[in-house]
């Protein structure tokens, strides 16, 4: 594929096994100028997600990318506990070095506001891998700064697929349905990548062995992370790579098929909280519904193994 022009991106994330693979992919891709990582509670608590962001950056020797802690919980709900999937450290027990620098003092939403205000309108994209709490707060508290975002690409939701945290609800949206409703309705240039696509992008044991046979740290770590995913979840001979799809779509959108859908978010208190429904009353969002699975996996593995 032909390299796209470099884009400034902020990664909003709750690392997380597949978040870590996605972040490593971004750091290994020249198309992304990663100018910051903002963290949110999700897969695990905010102290751990923030520490993990620093540890992932340390693996690549990146001291130039600031980490800024964000929301410690949803706008109005309790956090989920997914330690059974991601491990008590959030990274499946995979060894990462200690962070090379401390998180930036202050709050992610304030940092996002200041960073967006200082940049040319539309010049910074947000790659969102977790609950949308930080972005919802930015939209609510500083709408003029949110309006300066170039594009938001987010992993979340299930449209025609069953959920993974409830019958119809996917984790990232169910973790903070009110935040998702705010962000969907904010009029941002937004693309959502739901389980309908991410469940088709699957790594096998052969893939993890291939990655770990590399002498490139990002590939070795990614192979170990996906292996940890095999240990903690059931699902046959492969595992879905949810969050890397965000970076992969940003790298080569032609490998995905998107449609504009009007989506309503269930903000109730049942197990369907966070479920998405296509409705005339919903907010218009570009949604990825198709993917060339083999091609995106080839791109992912090539980038992770590149010297």
TrEMBL record:
Its EC number is 3.2.-.-, 3.2.2.1. Keywords: Glycosidase, Hydrolase. InterPro entries: I/U_nuclsd_hydro_CS (IPR015910), Inosine/uridine_hydrolase_dom (IPR001910), IUNH (IPR023186), Ribo_hydro-like (IPR036452). This is Purine nucleosidase/pyrimidine-specific ribonucleoside hydrolase. Gene3D superfamilies: Ribonucleoside hydrolase-like (3.90.245.10). The keyword Hydrolase applies. It holds the Pfam family IU_nuc_hydro. It is an enzyme of class 3 (hydrolase). GO terms for molecular function: purine nucleosidase activity. Residues 9-297 form the Inosine/uridine-preferring nucleoside hydrolase domain.
